[in-house]
Write the structure tokens for this entry.
Amino acid sequence: MTVFVSRSGWGARSARSVSTNITPANGGVTVHYVGSGSVAKQNHDQCAAQVRSIQDYHMDQKGWSDIAYTYLACVHDHVFVGRGPGVRTAANGTTSGNQNWYAVCGLVGDADAIPENLVKAYHSAIARLRGAGGAANRINGHRDHLSTSCPGERLYALVKDGSLDPRRAAVPPWPGIYLKYPPITRHSSVTTWQEQMRTRGYSLTVDGAYGEESKAICVRFQRSKGLAADGIVGQDTWDASWR
Ligand SMILES: [Zn+2]
Ligand SMILES: [Zn+2]
């Protein structure tokens, strides 16, 4: 399961400034890579240093306020938090690109293979941006904003054939929002969870609205799993729903 690495977890420097002027419901998520050659680390121990060096480059050479990306995904199924959900990026190359699209960088170069663990990390990152980040469902590549080789042929092929879409994941990644009541939570991820509860044999309406009925099912499910029965679908209850 994907591990999210917080900014303090990878030793990030503080951002010089933060802009929340982003409207990702009008765009979606843009996919990037690091650059040419082979840059993916064999050992995950080395990934945090790689992310720090990218941040140094962006802040000290490019003069940006912070690392440009929203998230960075490594080949070991870890997602490093860059600017994070709700924050404007500097990575997409155009004003409209940075206004409407998040940016998720794969820690690979064009000579690296794309392992399944990187695809999983992308699923988790994009699910989180669609949930907590309010992104639309579109996924594109840096080259769709302007002329660039980014994100490389291999990663871009997965953008084009839909492989990076979290709806392709065997186990849907937690969307980063809490399904709870009251008030009613309405989100596409509620539908996903309700369908799974139906698959597990619970009788409930699949309507994308987490209300009294969904909460009651959640409490029963949590008790059956020995989880805290608070009636809130957070990450633990979400993940348990597919186990
Ligand atoms: Zn790029
Ligand atoms: Zn790694």
